[in-house]
Every structure is written in structure tokens, then in C-alpha cells.
Specification:
7 helices
Length: 219
């Protein structure tokens, strides 16, 4: 995807991270792709407005979210598309890194913790070089979900121990109920994943205008 040039004038940048697909290599049920996605917003209020409007929409249709928080794999396309549509209208951007698991080097297959940290760090570097570090303060939030929890904790340790001097970012792991941006980035990552995994552009097309980087590796 062609890189778009942006000028950031934000005082703060909130970066919400989530992933789609799996890092399993030893079963026939693995996904073909693994995607890490960042949603970058200028304030938490932006993400709260999106989810507030979304829940108003769901109540009007006499339905409720099936789980304690919105998770794309548990919800209908209609609900996911609603969140993505609301996101496409706000002042925020999406960046992602997409890895073709069939072509991943054996050294990474043997150490998924290393692979996860490398992928997330590569995407963070791409952002650091080009965009949001023009902001004065940065908050990096990962989701405290059961999936890949250990991988995320090791990634934070990797950042803290190896790159603490490069980025001035407050890093935290939280739950989607507290950080609405995590629910939104879940939907965004799901849409990008489906584009590559299933050649399905139905959801992707809704947020295409907000995707400023889609880096493909191991092609």
C-alpha cells in the first residue's frame, strides 16, 4: 500500500494495539496471516464518543453485546461495520503490519515471543519514523485479553529493556471495558485480517480511508 504523508499537530497521541490471526504453526487449523494493528487517536474522548454512539445504536435495535466487551469474532458483520463506519468519521488513523505465516523464517517459528515482539516493534518503528512523535505525549495501550497475554507482557519487557531511550511512551495493558479504543482497534484489525485471510473487503472498505500504512512482510 502506498504510504501517505501526514503532518501531525496533536498534543497527545493514544496508540491502541490489537492483533488478529494466530501464531500457531503446528496444526492444520492455523490462520494463513497474522496481523498487528494500531489505532492512533488524539484523545481518549474520540474513542469514547465512537463507542457511546455505537451502544446507542445497539439499544435502539433492542439488542445487547453478547460479551462483557465488544469482540469482533463474537459479533455480527452489521455491528462491526457500524463501529468501523463511526471510526471512519473521526480524527484518527490506522496502521498495520501483515505477515504471511507460510513464509516466516524458521527462527521466528521456533520462538513466537520473539516474532510477536519483532512485528510489533517494526510497526512502532514505522510510526516513529514518520508520524505521531510530533505529539508531546504518547500513550501505548495493549488489550488485557486472554489471547496472547503472555506475548504482550514479553513485548512490554522487550520495549522497556531494549528501547527505553528511543521512545517516550507510557505503556500499559488494560481491559476493553476501560479503554474503548481497544474495542475499536479490535474491529479494525479484524477487518484488515479478513481482507488477507478471506479476500473479503466488505469491512475493510469502510475504514480504507483511515489506513495510512499497511506493511506486508514475509511475502
Amino acid at each position: 500500500m502506498e504510504l501517505r504523508i501526514l503532518v501531525w499537530h496533536w498534543i497527545m497521541a493514544y496508540i491502541y494495539m490489537d492483533e488478529s490471526g494466530d501464531l500457531t504453526f503446528n496444526t492444520k487449523y492455523w490462520s494463513k496471516f497474522f496481523v498487528i494493528t494500531f489505532l492512533v487517536a488524539k484523545s481518549e474522548k474520540e474513542t469514547e464518543i465512537i463507542m457511546k454512539n455505537f451502544y446507542k445504536w445497539t439499544n435502539w435495535r433492542w439488542r445487547t453485546i453478547k460479551w462483557a466487551f465488544f469482540h469482533s469474532t463474537k459479533e455480527s458483520n452489521r455491528s462491526i461495520k457500524r463501529i468501523l463506519d463511526l471510526t471512519s468519521r473521526r480524527d484518527m488513523n490506522i496502521v498495520s503490519i501483515v505477515s504471511n505465516k507460510n513464509n516466516i523464517n524458521k527462527q521466528y517459528k521456533d520462538d513466537v515471543h520473539k516474532l510477536y515482539s519483532w512485528l510489533a516493534w517494526e510497526l512502532l518503528q514505522q510510526c516513529e519514523k514518520r508520524w505521531f512523535l510530533g505529539a508531546w505525549k504518547h500513550y501505548f495501550v495493549l488489550s488485557r485479553k486472554e489471547t496472547n497475554q503472555n506475548l504482550k507482557e514479553k513485548f512490554i519487557n522487550y520495549l522497556s529493556n531494549s528501547h527505553s531511550d528511543l521512545l517516550d511512551i507510557d505503556i500499559s495493558i488494560d481491559i476493553p471495558q476501560h479503554k474503548k479504543g481497544l474495542e475499536i482497534v479490535d474491529a479494525c484489525s479484524h477487518a484488515i485480517f479478513r481482507k488477507f485471510e478471506n479476500w473479503d473487503l466488505d469491512l475493510y472498505s469502510v475504514i480504507k480511508n483511515k489506513i495510512i500504512l499497511e506493511k506486508q512482510i514475509f511475502n
